[in-house]
Design goal:
With about 80 residues, the chain is mainly alpha-helical. About 90% of the residues lie in helices and about 0% in strands. The chain contains 1 helix and no strands. It is rod-shaped. The termini are far apart.
Length: about 80
């Protein structure tokens, strides 16, 4: 009976070790994926800021061109 208990305990311990190894492996995979996501998020935020700056520059250029257009359409007597 003790041999069976010892064998059962050994098998149980082996299964426990496999579970622990799998959990450690899964944890490492998840940490790697989280790091990739953070990197992608940082890149997207940077691109968003660049896009916002571009839109602001474009908006300023439109205002400047419209202002210039108004000046060129204004008759000399009105100036």
């Amino acid at each position: 009976m003790k041999k069976e208990e010892t064998k059962s305990n050994s098998n149980s311990q082996s299964v426990d070790n496999q579970i622990i190894n799998n959990l450690v492996s899964n944890d490492q995979v998840l940490r790697t994926e989280v790091a990739k996501l953070k990197s992608s998020q940082n890149l997207l935020v940077s691109k968003l800021h660049n896009l916002e700056a571009f839109v602001q520059d474009l908006s300023n250029e439109i205002v400047r061109l419209r202002s210039q257009e108004v000046l060129t359409k204004t008759p000399p007597s009105a100036q």
